[in-house]
Amino acid sequence: MATTLSKPVLVFIPGAWHTPKCFKEVINILVAQGFECDAVSLPSVGAEARGEEPVKNWDPDVEAIRSTITSYLNLGKDVVPIAHSYGGTCASQAVMGLSPKDRAKEGKEGSVRRMIYISALLLKVGGYIWESSGGKPWGGVVRLEGGEQDGVIYPTESRNWFYGDLSDEEAAEAAKDLQSEACGVYLSRATYEPWFDIPCTYIRCTRDKCVLPEFQEYMLQTAGGHMDAVMFDSDHSPFLSRPKLMADMIQAQVMKG
């Protein structure tokens, strides 16, 4: 099997409204450090840009993530998924049965060595994202088009919500890449909690105005399992505002095994 000292493949999973482009700079740094990196395009993001109907739940996102991860596992490589914000929910579902213990039982090489969550949403089994707000979109910070089951939402506060540490020009440039998000993913219910089977790291962004620091702490306290928490002085998107420091932290956590 792959040794715990080898560098795993890093698979990045963006949050809602975002594409893999947001990870470009931090991925370039990690590639220069010798890591193989990949990033997943979530089917729930940007359906209108592709001329498609919005997905009805997060299952297509889960499948896209799992397919990417298993493509490397099938080559005998270890993988560390790195999930941001909403991406943490579907990434958690995607790794069921891919832990080192599960893969060893099947006599297979390559496993999900560790999960890294960046200011991500953590769900207990049975939970869904909008549960804390009564199953409704967040008032004042998103715009809903269509129904809550089959419509899409757009962020209306991206400057402060996502990009507080960027200059106005940088934030405006980042916002150009935002796309619609399918509403159905926010009502999908979790069926798996990977932190009981896979070592996990949670990177707490201490000045986050999207996933507030106190809510991050609440999720960590209720998750249980093997969850290492580390503090990071940043807004919601440290891979954009502090890419070198973010890359260094990712490398340190990845090589813990």
From TrEMBL:
Residue ranges of every copy of the AB hydrolase-1 domain listed in the record: 10-248
Alphabetical list of Pfam families matching this protein: Abhydrolase_6
InterPro entries linked: AB_hydrolase_1, AB_hydrolase_fold, Sec-Metab_Biosynth_Hydrolase
PANTHER family, per the entry: AB HYDROLASE-1 DOMAIN-CONTAINING PROTEIN-RELATED, ESTERASE_LIPASE_THIOESTERASE DOMAIN-CONTAINING PROTEIN
Official protein name in the record: Alpha/beta-hydrolase
Lineage summary: Eukaryota, Fungi, Dikarya, Ascomycota, Pezizomycotina
